[in-house]
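--- STAGE predict ---
source: upstream dedup step, 1 unique chain passed
mode: sequence only
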Amino acid sequence: MNADRLPVIAVTSGEPAGVGPELCLRLQEQSFPARVVVLADRHLLAARAQALRLRLSMPDYSGESAATGVELLHCPLATAALPGKLEPANACSVLAMLDRALAGCQSGEFAAMVTAPLHKGVINQAGIAFTGHTEYLAEHTGSHRVVMMLAGDTPRGPLRVALATTHLPLRAVADAITPSLLEECLRIVRTDMQRKYGIAQPRILVAGLNPHAGEGGYLGREEIDVIAPVLERLRGEGFLLQGPLPADTMFTPPILAQGDVVLAMYHDQGLTALKYATFGAGINVTLGLPIIRTSVDHGTALDLAGTGTADPGSLFAAIQEAIRMAGTARGVVA
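--- STAGE serialize ---
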C-alpha cells in the first residue's frame, strides 16, 4: 500500500504524570500498517525516555505523506510533569491535545484517534468540569448518545461487550434502563457494527437485568415490561437479537458463538467477563460518535509511572483495532 493511502492514526498521550507517555514511547518497538502520530510534549517524552533508557526517535509530524512509522505532534505542557505527580496546571494543555486530535478526525486529517488514559480528578481540580473522554467527545461532536464497548481477542475469537449503562450505582441501574434508552443503544450498536466493523447483519446478544433474566417475573419484571418489548419491536425491523438472556450463562462459549456483540445492562455484568478473558489486551471503543475512537482499558496507573513496568499491550491493541476500523470505513482490508 502506498504511503499516501495509509491511515493516519492520532494517539493522545493522556495524563502526563501517568503511564501514557511511556506507553507511547513503546510504540516505537512496533510496526503498524499505518502512520501513527503521537500527540505529546516532546520535552516530556525526552525526559521519560532518558529516565527509562528508551529511545526517542519520532520525527516531527508535518501532515505530509510519510512511510509507516511513529511521528510526534508536539503539544506543549504548561509546566514540567513528573511521574506520579499530578499537576492541575497542565489540565488545559491535556484537553488542548484532545481537541487537536478530535479536530483532525473531524477534518479527515486523521482516520481515527486512540486515547491513553486521563485523570478526571486533576482536571476537575483545575476548575474544569470533566467526567471522562467519552462524555467529552460526545459533547464536542454533538452526539446525543454514545455507547461504551470493550473488546478483546480470545482463543475463540473476538469478544465485544457494549453497555446499556456505565458508571451508575447499582441501585440506580433498573430505573435507568428505559425503553428509549435500550432502543437507542441497540440502534447505535447495530449501526456501528455495520459501518465500523463491516458486519452486514450483526447478531446482538442482549442480557437480562435480573438473575435468570427475571425467571418469568418471579425475580423482577424488567425483562417482561421493558427489555423484551423493545427487542420484539426491533426484530420487526430486521434486527437480529437474542434475549433477554441470563447473564450467568450468556458468556459461555456456545452462547457467545451465536453473536457478534453482547449488550450488557450494567458495568460489572458485562465487564467482569470481558476483563477476565482479555485483561492486558482489552480495549475500549466508543460507539455512536461520527469518528473512530478507541482507547486502552486501564487507567493512568500513577503508581507505575516512571518505572517502565506498565504493559503496553492494550495500547497496541487499541491502535490495531483503530486501523482495522479505519480500513473498514474506507473499504480497505487492513
